[in-house]
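Today's session is about reading a structure prediction critically. Students often jump straight to the picture, but the first step is always the sequence itself: look for stretches that repeat, for charged clusters, for runs of hydrophobic residues. Only then move on to the predicted structure, which in these notes is written as discrete structure tokens rather than atom positions. Here is the chain we will use throughout the hour.
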Amino acid sequence: MILIYTHTITPRINYTIDLIFNTVLHCPYKITNDVVFFNESILPKIAYTQEKKGVEVFLKSDTLLFETDIKHKIPSSNEFYLNLPQFFSTNNNSFLPYDLFATVFYFATRYEEYLAHESDKHQRFQAEQGLSFKCQILNKPFLNILIQDFATKLKQQFPQLEFKQRSFNFLSTIDIDNAFAYANKGLKRNVAGLIKDLSSFKFKQIANRINSNINSNNDPYNTFEFINSLSEESKTALHYFVLIGDYSNYDKNPHYQNKGFRSLLKSLSLKYPMGLHPSYESYNHLEKISIEKQRLENIIEKKVTTARCHFLRINFPETYRTFIKAGITDDYTMIYASQSGFRSGLCVPYKWFDLQKNEGTNLTIHPSTVMEGTLRDYNKLLPTQATEYINELMQEVKNNGGEFVSIWHNDSFVAEQEEWIDVYKTMLKAPPNLPNREG
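Below is the predicted structure for this chain, in token form.
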């Protein structure tokens, strides 16, 4: 066990130290503000405070973890450490030249997203406004890297310390935004679509629409048997997220009472975990999250405890508070739409901290790493370039014993997307073949 002294124990201190020592390093710890107890202890000791204590490991603290409000705080990044921008720099008296605890807290809680910023057209915080993107480290789980460096230095100082090595994990997730292109959409939507196709002379689509409504197995978006087979062949964990909200401009799945749609979801849920994909409209109407969750639970006859927001529309802290109230325990929304990588600087699941309430929660965040729509539609990468970038990101996660979470959509497995299907197949084959890097 390691003993950590700080002059004031705060919710932010408790959260950050638990994230570092429990979540990432799997090392038991104890926090104290009792100077006498600290001085008399024979345990390995760290002092996290303003003035240097007579211990081997003194970490000079910034004020961030002792504050209770949210200030306009953007740490400078003019200096570098481990070839990474150095945030919350300290001085030569400190064990580290920067405040690791403040750095971890700032990025893990998404502090900067609570500050005034310009949102995109979908009301999302833009990746390009984030510090990680501006500092060109979005493609690295830099918090994991810094924590592991800290652990290495602590081990040199205290050889008796033991840090459990995390194992790499890969999870393929599929968002079902549109289970069918034509089938199970109802008479009104199909007639409107047919008239539109006729007026545009889209005869192939007309034929597809008719065939799909005769037999939903012919629907081009009904790619689930193929997706499942790829998962089984590669022995890759698979997790579905289902959009089940009311119809709107950005919510276009079949009606939740449609028998064909319900049959599909029930069938998939028998073999694979299924989570909620809260609708686009639920961003501004949070009450819809519980309604949609109940709908899905009624269909699959199972409790739903996982979620990823449609369009990755997340509003801190309201969305996560609503998840907790609704019984969602695990979220997979932590990724940008326009850039792949590590939105929070972490590649391991960790607990969410409610910055406005200034308290920790039991909601687990699973950072997602890459989405096909980001690479293909936002970044305009060629399939070969996408494969190379995916491998780079996956290697970063593997180096840090993290969880690599990919996002694909069932409508990306249509015949016209053959090259991107190959990207997906290559990604599924990549994990076992990745060598461990030295260092």
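Discussion point for the tutorial: The first strand starts at residue 2 and ends at 5.
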